[in-house]
Amino acid sequence: MYPSRRGKHKIFIGMAPGVGKTYKMLEEAHSLKSEGIDVVIGLLETHGRKETAEKAAGLEVVPRREISRGAMTLTEMDTEKIIARSPQLILIDELAHTNIPGSPREKRYQDVEIILNAGIDVYSTMNIQHLESLNDLVARITGVIVRERVPDRFLEEAEEIIVVDITPESLQERIREGKVYAAAKIDESLTNFFRKPNLIALRELALREVADNVEEQALSANPQGLVCNIHERVLVCVSTYANSVQLLRRGARLANYMNAPLYVVFVADPERFLTKEESLHIENCEKLCQEFGGTFLRVTGSDIVKAIAQTAQKYRITQIVIGESQRSRWQILLRGSLTQKLVKLLKNIDLHIIATDVARNKEQGTGDRE
Question: The domain containing residue 332 runs over which residues?
Fold first, then answer.
């Protein structure tokens, strides 16, 4: 019978092999051991790297399970021995590893799940290309289909994720020095998977994935409070005015520059029907939004400012693009502008007010309905 307390999981993640994930994990383990924590190695893969092997010295190792495969005897992590040993913290390398046929479980992450349920804390390592949801994207970037994958929920449920980060140039230098692979594999690795463009893309994936995870955890912990949005998200406010196309293009450029998701919102007044020309204009805005890879949102509401603010909050927007007011100076003095009202209502969101040379149209659409 397992204890009520589930173990805590800390994952050391990197853009590729050789960045130093295992070394960093061992470094922290030694620090904890010096503080009196019972730390044990459950499974360590040094891949012949001298620095890693030396860093493991002084830490207890749980013996591996032996599995016979014909005339061969292979070894795997022994989950049952780890649970019987019951350390405070167990170190388990290569979370995405597929176990040898004949093992009690198919994947190493399944063993980790059992160990966590036994109330033992786990430190583990993995590379970003092994994350299930990124499999297709990694294949397009590198040309390599990754067979060993870890479900996204492991990152989502982990108490802590550490990105072990070095520059692509530094990793390539480590490979040339023979610190990652044997001499026979150096040239092949540098001209294939470890090409600089691949490493740059994988590094960005690793940093973004962890940023997403931190943001989601913060939102879950404080759903009603203020949460710092790590990623930029752009919202363009369009109306039936002709300048909406200009705003949309400007917003798309901003989103592309920031490498941010693009959202476009049209607020429809339930008490006002659009003319055929206006409906066609909004449809064109939606098509243009889709061409830019954005998400088009149709929102119904008689209070435009409130509707925009609610949309911004729902999609965690950080940048809003709106057009300059189509009201006359007297109208702005008497009733205020949409921009002024948004500034008062929105917090921690940047407003981009786009000037336009488009002649003022007859008052219609979201531009003036406040």
Answer: 234-367
